[in-house]
Each structure stands twice: as C-alpha cells, then as structure tokens.
Amino acid sequence: MLQLRPLAKCFLRCSLGDGRNCSFWFNHWSTLGQLWNVLGEEGPRPMGIPMNSKVSEATSGNGWFLPGHRTRNKKLKEVQTMLLMTSPPDDSKGEDSYYWQTGHSALLPFSNSATWDCLRPSRPRVQWEKVVWFKGHVPKHVFTFWVWNRVLLRLGHSTNTLLGWSSLNSWLSSSSSKAPEILKRLVAQAAIFFLWRERNTRLHMGTASTPDRIFKAIDQAIRDILLARYRRKPSALVSIWFTFS
Question: Which letter, b or e, does each residue of 88-110 get, where b requires 16 or more Cβ atoms within 10 Å of its Cβ?
Fold first, then answer.
C-alpha cells in the first residue's frame, strides 16, 4: 500500500478552508498542483516559505507572502501569479477538506470504478468481448482464454477452422438446444485453461498427462461449475452435459 502513495497523490485534492492542515508545498491545493513539483527543493528559499509550512503560514492579514525582489525564474513567476489569483485561506471557511478527483471531476463519494477507468489503458470495445467476459464465466478460465486469443492472432491460424479466432468466436456466439451458448463458452474456456496448464507442467516440471486424464479434468470442472450454480434450481445445462458424459 505504501508503494501506491505516489499514485494516490495524483488524485488527492485539497479544498482550502482555514489553511491550517494543508501543506503549502506538498498538498495539491493550487491550480498548479503540488508546488514542490513545480519549484523543487530550491523553492522554499526564494519564496521565503519553509518546506514544512502550512498554507495558512504563507499568508498574513494583507494576503500572501510574496518575495519583494524581482525574479527571472519563469516557474517562480507562475507561482506568484497563481497566488495573486487565489483567495487566501480564511477561518470563516472552516477546516481544510480533501477529496478524490479523476480528470476534471471530483468524486463525491469515492468511486473505485471511475478511478480504475482513469488508471487502466483505454481501448475501443472488441466484437468478442461478450464471448470471453460473459455472465457466469469462471475468472481463472477467462484469463487463459483471453490470452489464447492473442496467441491465435500471433500464430496467424486460418479462420476457416476452429483454430482461428474468428471462427471460434462465431461458433461460441451460436446456440442450439443440444449446445447452448453459455455451455459452449464454459467448456471452451475450461478446455483452454487445462490445456495451457498442461503445457506449463510439461515445460517446467517435465511431467505429462494423458489426453484422457486431461479430458476427465475438464469434465469434472464443468460438472462442479454446473452443480454449484444450479444445485437448488434445475437447469437444462446440467442434463445436457451429463447426457454426453
């Protein structure tokens, strides 16, 4: 958690009240962000404001403390201009308050999903999204299935067979009474998961399972998934899968 502090600082903002709790240099209270990031360790000396100062300690009854001498430092001028355009803290405003902000919007209350959307790389939705991340998926199977998509694309298999991602996607998107869509997806993801695990076992541990043993593992996984989810409410999926067992 401590390693995430620099990342959290990017989202944490301070709304000035009396300025007694907000750090002048290290909290994000100004339009320029954290002033320490603007002026660096040389900032306190020309500004005449010690490094551990609160915002309230950078003001007097007449406004902000500003250096009396002229400067050619552009960043220092930016800070001085920002202060002149910012209202000093005031006891009548109450205590300083903190909030979480993503982009230009304050999150009140805090939102995990909005923060994650801001952090993660954003790309357009793909056609096969619902084939992989469908309702009822098994997370550990989904991850391997998702990786397998990239493997297929890298290998450049023909799309005329189920070795191709497009044809596999089309097959998994179709449904029939004997092979419902959700059952196809559960089985496909489980199969890829166990095949990939077998590949890793052979590569790193030097042991191998027979095809029959791998299929039994897949079969047992599907049985467990269906029985766990439909134990109280009977489903055609259970009878369909057990029919071919």
Answer: bbeeeeeebeeebbbeeeebeee
